[in-house]
């Protein structure tokens, strides 16, 4: 059980937040009036009071909101919680979506003492159910949602230049979030191999996503370099997925044989190249999504191997056949 000690907001991003008497938490948005509210995975930021106090003993004068946190809570070590953990405070329910963050600019606290605790101690959450939170309210851990963290990356020179609307990236997001997946980053970048490699590496190694779905850059154009960038960052191959997509797509159009898409593994992240057109993206995802959750569970170490699952299925099938025969003999 934890106790909320401060609710903080800011009107602009990149500034410290300030304490308020109460916060109105809006479902799938964040705190009303806060600059970081929006349709993304970091709607609310949380810090443990104990971590702030520990930092303050190093000589820095720290006020609530200085690290950019929305909620300061006593009694819960947020950094130790797993992604997917559900926190309840009155009517409000929050789902932890990210632990820590990469700082792109140093806050005032960092300028004072050369350090900031938000990147390693802060956690971020989405608002599952709305309501009001005030200082003094109690907070508790009430559940655990298991959703695979996904990065969606669209490769398009024209899209990155603002000359073409990205339809495939948002489509991927809508399709995967209908299942056990949470898109934590959706990006639109040029067809530049070094930039693609950097983006894939960061999503795997720093953000720690379970799955990266790319769209675009898999054809014969000289600027299509997505497969080369994907192979450059791979630790292991997972060719069956790309082969399955091509084989299925060949039943729809013979031009599917022109796809150079690949599927690989880096660390504990699966990377899959999808086609560029929204129609082909929808067809490909509909075909492979039913099998992906098991593969990702095995990759993350949260499920058994395919062989053991197959044995269970075969055992169940054998038992069912025995029951059918017994019924026939009666």
TrEMBL record:
Domain MOSC, first and last residues per copy: 14-142
The organism's taxonomic lineage, starting at the top: Bacteria, Bacillati, Bacillota, Clostridia, Lachnospirales
Protein purpose: May be involved in the biosynthesis of molybdopterin.
GO molecular function ontology, one term from the record: molybdenum ion binding
Leader peptide range in chain numbering: none
Region annotation (Disordered) ranges: 307-330
Any one biological process term the GO annotation gives: Mo-molybdopterin cofactor biosynthetic process
Protein source organism: Candidatus Pullilachnospira stercoravium
Pathway(s) served: Cofactor biosynthesis; molybdopterin biosynthesis
Gene3D superfamilies: MoaB/Mog-like domain, PK beta-barrel domain-like
Keyword entries, A-Z: Molybdenum cofactor biosynthesis
Biased amino acid composition, Basic and acidic residues: 308-330
InterPro entries in the record: MoaB/Mog-like_dom_sf, MoaB/Mog_dom, MoCF_biosynth_CS, MoCF_Sase_C, MPT_Adenylyltrnsfr/MoaC-Rel, Pyrv_Knase-like_insert_dom_sf
The protein's name in its UniProt record: MOSC domain-containing protein
Residue ranges that the Swiss-Prot or TrEMBL entry lists as coiled coil: none
Organism superkingdom: Bacteria
